Amino acid sequence: MEQTIFLKKEQHHLKTDLHFDFCGISKTLPFHSFGPAIRQNYILHIIMEGKGTYQVKNQQYHLKKGDLFLIRPGDSTFYLADGEEPWMYGWLSFGGAAADEIIRRSHFKDDQYTMVSSDIQKYVDTILACLPFTEETFVNELHLNEQAYHFLAALLEDGGKVHLGEQKIYSPLTVDTVEYIEAHYAEHLTVEGIAQQLAVNRSHLSRVFRNHMDISIRDYLLGVRINRAAFLLSMTDESVETIAEQVGFNSLVVFSRMFKKLTGETATAYRKRMKNEDFKNVSLNELKSQLEKQAVVNRAT
What we know:
- The protein is an alpha+beta fold.
- It has two domains: about 1-165, Jelly Rolls (Sandwich); about 170-270, Arc Repressor Mutant, subunit A, CATH 1.10.10.
- About 40% of the residues lie in helices and about 25% in strands.
- α2 packs antiparallel against α3.
- About 35% of the residues are buried.
C-alpha cells in the first residue's frame, strides 16, 4: 500500500538516443510490495527514507536510505517495504539506444543492481524538476528528455559504491514455474496446466512453489496479471476491457473485482489518479505533505 505522485510521458514524438518515460515519488506503508513484474525500460529507484528488500534473479538486497536499485528491461523483480520502517522512494524510468551504454559506464555495470549513493539529493531534485511538465507538448518532451540526461549524469558522477546482495537459492522447479508464468500469463493458465507443461505432479509443484515463494501459484499468477494491468493503465490509453484481455482475464467483471480487491480502488480510479496534475512546482516538503493527505492504495509502483 502506498501514496504516490506520478508523471508519465504519454507518447514520444522524437526518436532520440535517450528518452524520459515516467517518474514519481511514493510513500509506502508497512509491507507494501510490488511484483513480481517485468518492465520494458530501465527504472532507477532512490530510497529517501526507511528500508526494504529488493529481489532480482537469484539475488536479495536489504536496502535503506541513500541506496539506489535498478530495474533492467526484461528482468522479473520484486520489492517489499519493511514492516517497521517502510520506505519512501523516488524513481525515474528511461529508455533509448544510449541507455545501455550509460548504465555500463555506471556502478551498475556487470549486472550490478544496487549501490550506495554518495548524495541522493541530485536525483530527487531532478525528479521534482520533471513534475511541472505534465502537458503533452513537444517542448515539454524536450524538457523531460533533458532531465533524463541530468539524472543519468548524476549517476555517472556519483562517488558511491556497489551494494552487494545475498545469494537466494530457489529450486529449479520454482524458477521454471516463475519463468513459465511470466511468459504465458496472458493465456488461460491453470495450476494443472502449468504442472503438465513442466511434466510434474500438480500437488508436488504447488508444495515446492509455496515453500520457496511463500505464496500459492494461483495468487502469484494473479499478482503478475494485476501488476501488469496497473502498468498498462498508467502507461497507455487502451480501454480497461482491452487491458483486462491482454493480461489474461476473459471477463471484465472478474478483472474489475480482482483489481479492486488487490489494489483497493477501481481500474478507472487508478488510471485517473496516475494522471493527477495537481503537483506542479512543489517543494519536497510540500510534496510529502500532499502525499500524507492522499488516499492509500496498493501496488502502484
